[in-house]
Amino acid sequence: MADRTETRGRRLVLAAPENLCLIRSAQDWSSCRSDERNSYLSDVHPVLKKGMNFLTENPAETGCLTSRLIEQLTDNGEAEDKSFGMAYFLDLAHLEAWSKSHPTHLAIFDSFMALAQRLGNAMTLRLWHEVAALPVDGARLEYINCHRRTGLLPFLELSHGSGSGG
Q1: Which helix (H) or strand (E) holds 33?
Q2: What is the pTM of this model?
Q3: 18-138 has which CATH code?
């Protein structure tokens, strides 16, 4: 990390590496019957949380710079039966390596497959992934008045000319 001991009150723009990989993985159990909902929340969702926590805690091993599992809320601040994970990997190869062979991802996949096999065509759980590999100029990574451990700040270098206040 570049020397950014004091980041509060500053506007920092980071230089994204070529092919920085963003994945958004969404889960929607709002249409599930109670038995399917309960199975998802007791058997699959905790394993997903464990995998996301592993990514967050092990960036050097996984190449995952930051990950969050976000529980969606209504406009009134009430929990919805939806969540999504968002993670940035150094590149697609790091995401593929984790998803193909790491025990935390295999556990997520196995827990889902057990649910899918039990429910078959009756399953109403909706899951999807969105993945983007970004060119160097494909995203503006800007942090304003953030703690130095926020998001990608600990991992990427500042863009030329960034770091001024305001």
Answers
A1: none
A2: 0.85
A3: 3.30.70.100
